[in-house]
Amino acid sequence: MTEVQPASPKPYDTPSRHRSHPGRPHAHLPQASGRAERSGGLMAGMVCVMGRVAAVLRCVLVVVIPLCVGQTNLKSPQDIEVYAVNTNFTLRWNYTGDGTNVTFSAQYQCFDDLQTNEPEWRELSGCQNVSHTECDFSSAITAYYDVHHLRIRAERREDKSPWSSIFEMVPYEIALIGPPEIALQSINGDIKIKVSPPEANQVRKIWLNPLLFKYNVVIWENSSNAEEVRILKILPIDVIEGLAPETTYCLKVQATIPLDYQEGLFSPIHCIKTTRKVNDLLCPTNVRVFALNMKFYLLWNNHYKEHVNYTVQYLTGFLKNLYDDYSSKWQKVSGCENIADMKCNLSSVIQPTSASHYFRVQAMNEYNKTCLSKDIKVDPLVTNEIGPPDVKVDISDVLLHIKITPPGGPANEIMSDLYDLSYNILYWKNSSDNEEVKTKETKQTIATISDLTPSTLYCVKVQAFSKAYNKSSDFSKEECVGTPGGRMNLGLVTHMKSKLLTLHRPLQSSLVRKYLRHGIMALPSQHPLGRRSYQQSATAACSISLLY
């Protein structure tokens, strides 16, 4: 309650100049005696009473008059909120005052991005003179992406409360996605489901692009002891597999917009009983894709004992995101029509930059009976596996040079660009001791390692990886190369020379002569000479080469 402040003196509160002062006689008034005195006393009493009444009236006026000028006993509504589903908007609030004969009216502002001046307040349609603490104002909102301000006040006849605090909203941002509509069909032990997007049958739509919707289904067995609940991502037209035959399942579907992190309301629960599953031996099974370095092959199995021809079909992945029937839009893969092999090269359809595709296999026996496999999705950059790179190593002075050829070879450079490949280089001293393995990461195909130890054999292997796709290749084959030796004292060289002359293996002797000529060491790690023997002999060779 607002405290009433003392009113300032009014003109009629000004003291009269004829007002007597206490203890001070009026010299100009004659002295009264007898009846005159009694009469004067009676009149004085009446004047006193009238003065008290006037004083009381003045006090009442001081208190009442401010309430009559712009003030009210009505409280403002509080806790304003909006509940929205699709294009249905409901304004809700609380009212803690005396609700007797109280109604409520709301106003709104709509801020257009192109508007420079503040918009005027307008009456909110559907929320005028309502007696409850909520109202539906769906008809008033048409600009779903603009900022709106809402306010509301209480009213009792001519008395009106102050406006509530302003509620700000962008309809699209606060609206919940409504439940989708679904239709179910039981087919050969599976459940075929067709989903219609929210607002499918409405003229006014807040979700302008239904292709942005993704759908989650929650499905469970409708029995007293069922505990397993499956949550699946489904397409607008999809098949739920892996179900028990002749069993009742219940499910509900939710629409989401992942790009905006929005989740919708679930549909009502629908239940359906699966049929008995019939396995046709003619149908291809275990359909799968083998993909390495952007070369794709479709493989499958078949248990049919007689002769069978196969035709591979494909469907552009985009079509499965639509709500229309795509059954007539499957096409044949070139080179995979009426084939006997259970393998198909998909290179005529899939390119590194291709979008996703779906593939299936149609089998036909000698009686022209056909059966289709289940389809499989191929997203090139996701399905493909990265092979190991090729590596070459070389030595110059005390630097180890590593040249990397990307997976798939020079002709497949586009794959390196699409994956944004990086390389993990492992290198170590190849000795009898447990040497530390060092790593170096690079995005370049040429790398250099420094700070090498002379007369030492180093080995290298490289792995390609893509952070964006969380993929990595196997490591390449190990490649080893030795560093040149330094000068040694003459006594040690003479001793090593005598050792060298006693070599009894022709292979070792020839190798020593070879590396005496070149002055460097470079052998693969798997050479028959053996790593330790090679190191000893090669070290001696490098040392003796200093004598020539």
UniProtKB/TrEMBL annotation:
Molecular function terms, GO-annotated: type I interferon receptor activity
Gene Ontology CC terms, in alphabetical order: plasma membrane
Start-end of Basic residues biased regions: 17-27
Fibronectin type-III domain sequence ranges: 385-486
UniProt cross-references to InterPro entries, sorted A to Z: FN3_dom (IPR003961), FN3_sf (IPR036116), Ig-like_fold (IPR013783), Interferon/interleukin_rcp_dom (IPR015373), Type-II_Cytokine-TF_Rcpt (IPR050650)
SMART domains for this protein: FN3
Spans annotated as Disordered: 1-35
Protein name in the entry: Interferon alpha and beta receptor subunit 1
Origin species: Coturnix japonica
